[in-house]
Amino acid sequence: MKVNAAMTTQTIGLTTTKAPFIESAQAAGQVFIHQPYELYSEENQETWRQLYARILPRWQRYAHPKFMEGVGNLALPGDRIPRLDDINKFLSPLSGFVSKAVAGYVPAYVFFDCLRTRNFPTTITIRDSATLDYLPEPDIFHDVAGHVPMHTDRQFSDVLVRFGQVARFAAQRAQEMRGDRHEQLQRLESNIRAMARFFWFTVEFGLMRFGSELKVYGSGLLSSYSEIAHCIDSDLVQRHPLQLEWVVNQYFEIDHFQELLFIVDSFDHLFSLVDQLELWLGQGRLDNVSRGEPVINETDLNSFLLADLG
């Protein structure tokens, strides 16, 4: 008996690592795609509903008020996976940002340069219902529910744009370097590692002072039901005021709760730290940061070396 391919794909849905639509896009070399909303299965929709319902009270308790304001401004639905077109109708007038569907991994420079142009690469698959608590790679709940509400805030979105400008400066430095090729690659690898660590400890896992309290603004925490509480309440977490020299030399691991987090005072403070990051890059102070995670692969290196800076 012949099985209808479209029906089979729809039954399978858009589950992370199990989506034929994504596999086909990747095989074709596509980075940016559309969101085939009709392919989401009922199980996919139920996964979103469960993720949203259980984390909402924790957002209300632990999230920075600007995040909760963003949830409201996006009219972020709890009963269904959002359509990116609907998200962008609310998002773009507020900050100029749009969520742009991708087929998976985006090379480092391409990702950072998207931020510079106010485009956010957005994963469209959703985690398996059997793994609600942990996913080693982004999914639509992490990207849309964790990241995008903060993008509605003009101050925070300007931080992302500024960070993208720093990445462009790093690519320009790498391409203009003359002399030893090994030295060029070593320096660029260090620069990318420093930027990745900064992004991790701020945009992904950042804490911010809000009056006498600590609040969460990092998307990795905001999309994790367990860690959003752990990062504030647990005595096992070290929390320190952010110092740039610490952050760019601090490795991180993705497969367990973070043991070390950094605190900024405000969004203005965060913006000034990105300015400082660019200054240090130009001074060569990011050319030899400590080794360790994250590992910088050849694709990420080439994304900077071959970037079109015209």
Task: Give your account of this protein's structure.
With about 300 residues, the protein is an alpha/beta fold. It has a single domain (about 5-305), classed as Aromatic amino acid hydroxylase (Phenylalanine Hydroxylase). Helix content is about 55%, strand content about 10%. The chain contains 14 helices and six strands. The chain has helices spanning about 5-10, 20-25, 40-60, 65-75, 85-95, 110-115, 140-150, 155-175, 180-205, 220, 225-235, 245-250, 265-285, 300-305, and strands at about 100, 120-125, 205-210, 215, 240, 260-265. It has a four-stranded mixed beta sheet. It has a two-stranded parallel ribbon with strand order 1-2. Helix 4 (about 65-75) packs across helix 7 and helix 8 runs parallel beside helix 13 (about 265-285). It is globular and about 55 Å long.
Structural features:
14 helices; disordered N terminus; 6 strands; single chain; alpha/beta; globular; two-stranded parallel ribbon; 4-stranded mixed sheet; about 300 residues; Phenylalanine Hydroxylase
Second CATH tier, the architecture: Orthogonal Bundle
Shape: globular
CATH fold-type name: Phenylalanine Hydroxylase
Q: Please tally the helical runs, counting DSSP H or I stretches of 4 or more residues.
A: 14
- Which stretches are low in confidence, meaning pLDDT under 50 for 5 or more residues running? 1-10
User: What's the number of extended β-strand segments?
Assistant: 6
How much of the polypeptide forms β-strand, as a percent range?
A: 5-15%
Largest beta-sheet details: 4 strands, mixed
Fraction of residues in H or I helices: 40-55%
> Strand order across the biggest sheet?
4-3-6-5
Look at the helices and sheets and give the structural class.
alpha/beta
CATH-defined superfamily: Aromatic amino acid hydroxylase
Number of domains: 1
Radius of gyration: 20 Å
